[in-house]
Write a structure and sequence with these properties.
- By secondary structure, the chain is of the alpha+beta class.
- The chain has one domain.
- The protein is about 45% helix and about 15% strand.
- It has a 3-stranded antiparallel sheet with strand order 1-3-2.
- The longest helix has 15 residues.
- It is elongated.
- The N and C termini lie far apart (about 50 Å).
Length: about 70
């Protein structure tokens, strides 16, 4: 498996949050944790992309079942 390591500027660009918001969400365990690269840190691209997908899933309402829409069979 190949996974890129993203640095903060790349993560900010991908998720649209500022640095402080990212660190606050990490503290609250609501954002992927960093991986250490010696003295530097970064994020796994796959984890950031999964976080984005989860935010999208949570923001969309569940679809309404056909029988609950008031449609009657003809």
């Amino acid at each position: 498996m190949t996974d890129r390591i993203l640095r903060m500027p790349q993560v900010v660009e991908m998720v649209g949050l500022c640095r402080a918001s990212i660190y606050n969400r990490m503290r609250d365990e609501a954002f992927p944790r960093q991986v250490k690269l010696g003295r530097l840190s970064g994020w796994l691209e796959s984890e950031v992309q999964e976080w984005i997908r989860e935010q999208i899933r949570q923001s969309r309402p569940d679809p309404i079942p056909e029988d609950a829409r008031g449609n009657r069979p003809s």
